[in-house]
Amino acid sequence: MSTQMATTSQSHNPASKWLNLRNLALVLVVFGLFVSGYLSYVKLTNVPMACPGAGEGGFNCDVVQNSIYSEFPIRSGIAIAWLGFATYVVIGLMILFEKRIPLFREWGIPLTFGIVTFAFLFSMYLVYVQAFWLKAFCVWCLMHEANMTVLFVVYIGRLILFLNRPDVNEA
What we know:
By secondary structure, this protein is mainly α. It has a single domain, classed as VKOR domain (de novo design (two linked rop proteins), Up-down Bundle), CATH 1.20.1440.130. The chain is elongated, with a radius of gyration of 19 Å.
């Protein structure tokens, strides 16, 4: 009986409609767009980057932002910040359209999980580059990498829910 009451009270709670992993993922995408958008703006315009903690504890955004590793492929002219922004746009669109497009209704969560997993692994590679090759950290880059880590964890949860109940698209 208590299970039925908990289910009933949860379904009547208006906040429970909005508090789900899908909406959390969208919030993380918006934050990621802000961070990668700022990094893209700095790279595109060559304006000085606001770097909290610069010079303390190995933080030096200029070293990271102007290194050969800030482009992919190396020395290609394609800024990693732009790729990050594009990745967040793609992830956001896939989340928004997963209820509207038949392919995404059926495969949206696993496909997005694949993209998020690749982005997470690439972000961890970039942390490695900052720590061991550049020996300098960028606060903005670390914010992106932390955000992508949380998004990856959220998508593990979404994938588990999807695999257990593929008919439920609220994961």
